[in-house]
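ok so i was messing around last nite and threw this chain in just to see what happens. nothing serious, just curious
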Amino acid sequence: MTSHILPTLDFDLPPERSASAPPEARGLTRDAVSLMVSYPAEDRIVHTQFARIGDMLQPDDVVVINTSGTLNAALPARSASGQAFVLHLSTHQPTGEWVIEVRQPEGAATVPFSYGSVGERYQLPAGGMATLLSPYGRVSPGRVRLWRAQLELPQATHAYLNRYGTPIRYRYVPQRWEGRYYQTVYATEPGSAEMPSAGRAFTPEIITGLVARGVQVVPLLLHTGVSSLEDHEPPYAEWYRVPAATARAVNAAHAAGGRVIAIGTTVVRALETVTDERGVTHGGEGWTEEIISGARGVRAANGLLTGLHEPRATHLALLEAFTPRVHLAQAYAEALQRGYLWHEFGDLHLLLNPARRM
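result:
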Protein backbone atom coordinates (compact mmCIF):
# COMPACT_ATOMS: atom_id res chain seq x y z
CA MET A 1 0.00 0.00 0.00
CA THR A 2 1.41 3.34 -1.00
CA SER A 3 1.34 6.11 1.56
CA HIS A 4 1.35 8.85 -1.08
CA ILE A 5 -2.08 10.42 -1.50
CA LEU A 6 -2.55 13.14 -4.08
CA PRO A 7 -4.12 16.39 -2.89
CA THR A 8 -7.87 16.31 -3.25
CA LEU A 9 -10.64 18.82 -3.83
CA ASP A 10 -10.74 21.67 -1.33
CA PHE A 11 -13.74 23.90 -0.62
CA ASP A 12 -15.52 25.62 2.25
CA LEU A 13 -18.23 23.50 3.90
CA PRO A 14 -20.53 25.62 6.11
CA PRO A 15 -21.66 23.85 9.32
CA GLU A 16 -25.31 24.08 8.28
CA ARG A 17 -24.60 21.82 5.31
CA SER A 18 -24.03 18.85 7.65
CA ALA A 19 -27.07 16.61 8.09
CA SER A 20 -27.59 16.62 11.85
CA ALA A 21 -30.38 14.02 11.95
CA PRO A 22 -31.83 11.21 9.82
CA PRO A 23 -34.24 12.22 7.04
CA GLU A 24 -37.05 10.51 8.98
CA ALA A 25 -36.56 13.06 11.77
CA ARG A 26 -36.92 15.84 9.19
CA GLY A 27 -40.30 14.53 8.04
CA LEU A 28 -38.92 12.65 5.03
CA THR A 29 -38.81 9.01 4.01
CA ARG A 30 -35.44 7.35 3.49
CA ASP A 31 -35.67 7.70 -0.27
CA ALA A 32 -36.76 11.37 -0.26
CA VAL A 33 -33.21 12.73 0.00
CA SER A 34 -31.85 14.76 -2.89
CA LEU A 35 -29.85 13.07 -5.63
CA MET A 36 -27.32 14.80 -7.84
CA VAL A 37 -26.49 12.86 -11.01
CA SER A 38 -23.20 13.53 -12.80
CA TYR A 39 -22.54 12.53 -16.41
CA PRO A 40 -18.82 13.35 -16.69
CA ALA A 41 -18.51 12.33 -20.35
CA GLU A 42 -21.15 14.93 -21.24
CA ASP A 43 -20.13 17.37 -18.50
CA ARG A 44 -23.78 17.37 -17.44
CA ILE A 45 -25.37 17.49 -13.98
CA VAL A 46 -28.99 16.64 -13.13
CA HIS A 47 -30.76 17.25 -9.83
CA THR A 48 -33.58 14.99 -8.67
CA GLN A 49 -34.70 12.85 -5.73
CA PHE A 50 -33.27 9.48 -4.83
CA ALA A 51 -36.72 7.92 -5.20
CA ARG A 52 -36.27 8.40 -8.97
CA ILE A 53 -32.93 6.59 -9.22
CA GLY A 54 -34.56 3.91 -11.37
CA ASP A 55 -35.02 6.52 -14.11
CA MET A 56 -31.23 6.83 -14.33
CA LEU A 57 -30.59 3.10 -14.77
CA GLN A 58 -31.18 0.74 -17.69
CA PRO A 59 -31.92 -2.94 -18.24
CA ASP A 60 -28.67 -4.96 -18.14
CA ASP A 61 -27.16 -2.58 -15.57
CA VAL A 62 -25.87 -4.29 -12.44
CA VAL A 63 -26.11 -2.58 -9.05
CA VAL A 64 -23.62 -3.86 -6.46
CA ILE A 65 -24.49 -3.35 -2.79
CA ASN A 66 -22.50 -3.84 0.42
CA THR A 67 -24.51 -5.97 2.85
CA SER A 68 -22.28 -5.28 5.88
CA GLY A 69 -24.31 -4.29 8.92
CA THR A 70 -23.37 -1.49 11.30
CA LEU A 71 -22.13 -2.29 14.80
CA ASN A 72 -22.92 -0.31 17.93
CA ALA A 73 -19.21 0.40 17.90
CA ALA A 74 -18.98 3.30 20.40
CA LEU A 75 -18.40 2.29 24.02
CA PRO A 76 -18.15 4.48 27.14
CA ALA A 77 -14.81 4.01 28.90
CA ARG A 78 -12.78 5.32 31.82
CA SER A 79 -9.05 5.50 32.22
CA ALA A 80 -7.26 4.38 35.37
CA SER A 81 -7.41 7.99 36.60
CA GLY A 82 -11.19 8.04 36.18
CA GLN A 83 -11.27 10.28 33.11
CA ALA A 84 -14.16 9.59 30.72
CA PHE A 85 -13.54 8.59 27.13
CA VAL A 86 -15.38 6.98 24.24
CA LEU A 87 -13.81 4.02 22.46
CA HIS A 88 -14.62 3.58 18.78
CA LEU A 89 -14.09 0.00 17.66
CA SER A 90 -12.85 0.09 14.09
CA THR A 91 -11.62 -3.24 12.78
CA HIS A 92 -11.52 -6.75 14.23
CA GLN A 93 -8.13 -8.24 13.39
CA PRO A 94 -7.53 -11.94 12.53
CA THR A 95 -5.43 -12.20 15.70
CA GLY A 96 -8.49 -11.35 17.80
CA GLU A 97 -7.25 -7.86 18.58
CA TRP A 98 -9.21 -4.75 17.64
CA VAL A 99 -8.12 -1.53 16.01
CA ILE A 100 -9.70 1.21 18.12
CA GLU A 101 -9.88 4.97 18.36
CA VAL A 102 -9.87 6.70 21.77
CA ARG A 103 -11.88 9.92 21.76
CA GLN A 104 -13.03 12.53 24.21
CA PRO A 105 -16.74 12.22 25.13
CA GLU A 106 -19.35 14.33 23.39
CA GLY A 107 -19.29 17.93 24.48
CA ALA A 108 -15.64 17.91 25.53
CA ALA A 109 -13.83 21.11 24.67
CA THR A 110 -10.49 19.37 24.13
CA VAL A 111 -9.06 17.75 21.01
CA PRO A 112 -11.08 14.71 19.88
CA PHE A 113 -8.30 12.14 20.10
CA SER A 114 -6.45 10.89 23.16
CA TYR A 115 -2.76 10.26 22.78
CA GLY A 116 -2.81 7.20 25.04
CA SER A 117 0.21 5.05 25.80
CA VAL A 118 1.24 1.44 25.36
CA GLY A 119 -0.22 -0.69 28.13
CA GLU A 120 -2.86 1.86 29.14
CA ARG A 121 -6.12 0.23 30.25
CA TYR A 122 -9.67 1.50 29.96
CA GLN A 123 -12.58 0.20 32.00
CA LEU A 124 -15.67 -0.67 29.94
CA PRO A 125 -19.27 -1.38 31.04
CA ALA A 126 -20.07 -4.55 33.03
CA GLY A 127 -16.44 -5.22 33.89
CA GLY A 128 -15.06 -5.12 30.35
CA MET A 129 -11.52 -3.90 29.75
CA ALA A 130 -9.53 -2.53 26.81
CA THR A 131 -5.72 -2.52 26.81
CA LEU A 132 -3.71 -0.49 24.31
CA LEU A 133 -1.03 -2.70 22.75
CA SER A 134 0.68 -0.65 20.02
CA PRO A 135 -0.01 2.18 17.57
CA TYR A 136 -1.72 1.21 14.33
CA GLY A 137 -1.13 2.76 10.94
CA ARG A 138 0.12 6.29 10.45
CA VAL A 139 1.37 8.02 13.58
CA SER A 140 1.18 11.81 13.59
CA PRO A 141 3.94 13.70 15.41
CA GLY A 142 3.16 13.78 19.10
CA ARG A 143 0.03 11.65 19.02
CA VAL A 144 -1.52 8.33 18.06
CA ARG A 145 -4.98 8.19 16.53
CA LEU A 146 -5.56 4.45 16.14
CA TRP A 147 -4.38 1.66 18.43
CA ARG A 148 -4.19 -2.08 18.38
CA ALA A 149 -6.01 -3.13 21.52
CA GLN A 150 -7.00 -6.24 23.41
CA LEU A 151 -10.63 -6.35 24.54
CA GLU A 152 -11.75 -8.44 27.50
CA LEU A 153 -15.54 -8.62 27.44
CA PRO A 154 -17.93 -10.52 29.71
CA GLN A 155 -19.93 -11.86 26.76
CA ALA A 156 -19.76 -12.35 22.99
CA THR A 157 -18.74 -9.18 21.17
CA HIS A 158 -21.92 -8.55 19.16
CA ALA A 159 -24.19 -9.24 22.11
CA TYR A 160 -22.06 -6.96 24.29
CA LEU A 161 -22.12 -4.12 21.76
CA ASN A 162 -25.86 -4.48 21.28
CA ARG A 163 -26.35 -4.05 25.01
CA TYR A 164 -23.74 -1.44 25.96
CA GLY A 165 -22.64 0.22 22.72
CA THR A 166 -24.16 2.91 20.54
CA PRO A 167 -23.60 3.77 16.87
CA ILE A 168 -20.58 5.96 16.25
CA ARG A 169 -21.58 9.57 15.75
CA TYR A 170 -19.72 12.82 15.40
CA ARG A 171 -20.35 16.33 16.62
CA TYR A 172 -22.48 17.32 13.67
CA VAL A 173 -25.09 14.79 14.96
CA PRO A 174 -25.87 16.18 18.43
CA GLN A 175 -28.64 13.71 19.32
CA ARG A 176 -28.34 9.96 19.78
CA TRP A 177 -30.33 7.82 17.33
CA GLU A 178 -31.20 4.15 17.62
CA GLY A 179 -29.12 1.62 15.75
CA ARG A 180 -31.87 1.03 13.18
CA TYR A 181 -31.22 4.49 11.77
CA TYR A 182 -27.67 3.40 10.97
CA GLN A 183 -28.60 0.24 9.04
CA THR A 184 -29.29 -0.21 5.36
CA VAL A 185 -32.42 -2.22 4.59
CA TYR A 186 -30.31 -4.98 3.01
CA ALA A 187 -27.71 -5.44 5.77
CA THR A 188 -27.16 -9.14 6.55
CA GLU A 189 -23.90 -9.51 8.46
CA PRO A 190 -22.79 -7.05 11.18
CA GLY A 191 -19.18 -5.92 11.09
CA SER A 192 -18.85 -2.29 9.99
CA ALA A 193 -17.76 0.33 12.50
CA GLU A 194 -19.82 2.87 10.59
CA MET A 195 -22.72 2.55 8.21
CA PRO A 196 -21.93 2.01 4.52
CA SER A 197 -24.14 5.04 4.13
CA ALA A 198 -24.41 5.40 0.34
CA GLY A 199 -27.06 2.67 0.41
CA ARG A 200 -29.11 4.10 3.27
CA ALA A 201 -31.74 5.64 0.99
CA PHE A 202 -32.67 2.33 -0.61
CA THR A 203 -36.04 0.87 0.34
CA PRO A 204 -37.44 -2.58 -0.48
CA GLU A 205 -39.79 -0.88 -2.93
CA ILE A 206 -36.94 0.80 -4.81
CA ILE A 207 -35.00 -2.47 -5.04
CA THR A 208 -38.10 -4.27 -6.30
CA GLY A 209 -38.63 -1.53 -8.86
CA LEU A 210 -35.06 -1.84 -10.13
CA VAL A 211 -35.39 -5.59 -10.56
CA ALA A 212 -38.68 -5.08 -12.39
CA ARG A 213 -36.85 -2.76 -14.82
CA GLY A 214 -34.31 -5.48 -15.59
CA VAL A 215 -31.59 -4.09 -13.32
CA GLN A 216 -29.77 -6.83 -11.43
CA VAL A 217 -28.91 -6.18 -7.75
CA VAL A 218 -26.01 -8.27 -6.41
CA PRO A 219 -24.19 -8.29 -3.05
CA LEU A 220 -20.71 -8.20 -1.68
CA LEU A 221 -19.38 -7.57 1.81
CA LEU A 222 -16.82 -5.09 3.09
CA HIS A 223 -16.61 -4.28 6.80
CA THR A 224 -15.69 -0.63 6.94
CA GLY A 225 -13.63 0.89 9.74
CA VAL A 226 -13.87 4.36 11.27
CA SER A 227 -14.17 7.10 8.68
CA SER A 228 -12.80 10.00 10.71
CA LEU A 229 -9.61 10.12 8.68
CA GLU A 230 -7.35 13.15 8.76
CA ASP A 231 -6.63 15.17 5.64
CA HIS A 232 -5.07 12.93 2.95
CA GLU A 233 -4.93 10.00 5.37
CA PRO A 234 -5.26 6.78 3.37
CA PRO A 235 -7.94 4.19 4.22
CA TYR A 236 -6.77 1.24 6.28
CA ALA A 237 -7.02 -2.47 5.55
CA GLU A 238 -10.60 -3.77 5.57
CA TRP A 239 -12.04 -7.26 5.26
CA TYR A 240 -14.09 -8.08 2.16
CA ARG A 241 -15.89 -10.97 0.49
CA VAL A 242 -16.98 -10.93 -3.15
CA PRO A 243 -19.14 -13.95 -4.05
CA ALA A 244 -18.36 -15.75 -7.28
CA ALA A 245 -21.94 -15.11 -8.44
CA THR A 246 -21.42 -11.35 -8.02
CA ALA A 247 -18.19 -11.49 -10.01
CA ARG A 248 -19.99 -13.37 -12.80
CA ALA A 249 -22.77 -10.78 -12.85
CA VAL A 250 -20.25 -7.93 -13.14
CA ASN A 251 -18.42 -9.64 -16.01
CA ALA A 252 -21.69 -10.50 -17.76
CA ALA A 253 -22.86 -6.87 -17.53
CA HIS A 254 -19.72 -5.64 -19.24
CA ALA A 255 -20.00 -8.34 -21.90
CA ALA A 256 -23.61 -7.34 -22.62
CA GLY A 257 -22.87 -3.62 -22.77
CA GLY A 258 -24.44 -2.87 -19.40
CA ARG A 259 -23.04 -0.75 -16.63
CA VAL A 260 -21.85 -1.72 -13.17
CA ILE A 261 -22.99 0.74 -10.51
CA ALA A 262 -21.18 0.57 -7.16
CA ILE A 263 -23.28 1.61 -4.16
CA GLY A 264 -20.63 3.33 -2.09
CA THR A 265 -16.87 3.67 -2.05
CA THR A 266 -16.68 0.44 -0.02
CA VAL A 267 -18.08 -1.46 -3.00
CA VAL A 268 -15.56 0.17 -5.31
CA ARG A 269 -12.71 -0.84 -3.01
CA ALA A 270 -13.86 -4.46 -2.82
CA LEU A 271 -14.53 -4.78 -6.56
CA GLU A 272 -11.23 -3.21 -7.57
CA THR A 273 -9.39 -5.57 -5.23
CA VAL A 274 -10.67 -8.61 -7.16
CA THR A 275 -10.58 -7.18 -10.70
CA ASP A 276 -7.47 -7.88 -12.75
CA GLU A 277 -5.70 -5.66 -15.27
CA ARG A 278 -7.82 -7.06 -18.10
CA GLY A 279 -10.95 -5.84 -16.32
CA VAL A 280 -12.11 -9.32 -15.32
CA THR A 281 -13.65 -9.56 -11.85
CA HIS A 282 -13.10 -12.66 -9.71
CA GLY A 283 -14.70 -13.92 -6.53
CA GLY A 284 -12.56 -13.80 -3.41
CA GLU A 285 -12.20 -12.71 0.16
CA GLY A 286 -9.50 -11.36 2.44
CA TRP A 287 -8.02 -8.07 3.57
CA THR A 288 -7.73 -5.23 1.08
CA GLU A 289 -5.33 -2.31 1.20
CA GLU A 290 -6.31 -1.13 -2.27
CA ILE A 291 -6.32 2.64 -2.73
CA ILE A 292 -8.25 4.01 -5.70
CA SER A 293 -7.58 7.42 -7.19
CA GLY A 294 -7.83 9.23 -10.48
CA ALA A 295 -4.27 8.24 -11.32
CA ARG A 296 -5.04 4.55 -10.76
CA GLY A 297 -8.51 4.53 -12.36
CA VAL A 298 -11.20 1.87 -12.02
CA ARG A 299 -11.61 -1.41 -13.89
CA ALA A 300 -14.87 -2.86 -12.59
CA ALA A 301 -17.39 -0.06 -12.07
CA ASN A 302 -18.87 2.40 -14.54
CA GLY A 303 -20.83 4.30 -11.94
CA LEU A 304 -20.78 5.18 -8.27
CA LEU A 305 -23.48 6.23 -5.82
CA THR A 306 -21.91 8.01 -2.88
CA GLY A 307 -22.54 10.63 -0.25
CA LEU A 308 -21.02 14.08 -0.24
CA HIS A 309 -17.53 14.11 1.21
CA GLU A 310 -15.68 16.65 3.29
CA PRO A 311 -13.00 18.95 1.83
CA ARG A 312 -9.66 17.21 1.19
CA ALA A 313 -11.08 13.79 2.13
CA THR A 314 -9.36 10.75 0.67
CA HIS A 315 -12.71 9.60 -0.73
CA LEU A 316 -12.64 12.60 -3.07
CA ALA A 317 -9.52 11.15 -4.67
CA LEU A 318 -11.50 7.96 -5.31
CA LEU A 319 -14.25 9.98 -6.98
CA GLU A 320 -11.66 11.32 -9.41
CA ALA A 321 -11.37 7.79 -10.77
CA PHE A 322 -14.91 8.36 -12.12
CA THR A 323 -14.79 12.03 -13.10
CA PRO A 324 -12.27 14.75 -13.86
CA ARG A 325 -11.68 17.09 -10.96
CA VAL A 326 -13.08 20.06 -12.87
CA HIS A 327 -16.45 18.30 -13.20
CA LEU A 328 -16.33 17.18 -9.58
CA ALA A 329 -15.65 20.75 -8.47
CA GLN A 330 -18.63 22.01 -10.49
CA ALA A 331 -20.87 19.31 -9.03
CA TYR A 332 -19.88 20.19 -5.47
CA ALA A 333 -20.36 23.89 -6.18
CA GLU A 334 -23.92 23.15 -7.37
CA ALA A 335 -24.58 20.94 -4.35
CA LEU A 336 -23.56 23.76 -2.03
CA GLN A 337 -25.61 26.30 -3.96
CA ARG A 338 -28.71 24.10 -3.88
CA GLY A 339 -28.48 23.34 -0.16
CA TYR A 340 -27.49 19.68 -0.33
CA LEU A 341 -26.66 18.02 2.99
CA TRP A 342 -23.43 16.19 3.77
CA HIS A 343 -22.53 13.05 5.76
CA GLU A 344 -24.31 9.78 6.50
CA PHE A 345 -27.81 11.26 6.91
CA GLY A 346 -27.42 13.62 3.97
CA ASP A 347 -28.00 13.69 0.23
CA LEU A 348 -26.41 11.57 -2.49
CA HIS A 349 -24.33 11.86 -5.63
CA LEU A 350 -24.55 9.41 -8.55
CA LEU A 351 -21.70 9.43 -11.06
CA LEU A 352 -22.51 7.62 -14.33
CA ASN A 353 -20.08 6.80 -17.13
CA PRO A 354 -20.86 5.01 -20.41
CA ALA A 355 -20.86 1.22 -20.54
CA ARG A 356 -17.85 -0.60 -21.92
CA ARG A 357 -17.52 -3.98 -23.53
CA MET A 358 -14.93 -6.51 -22.44
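not much to say yet. The first helix runs from residue 157 to 164.
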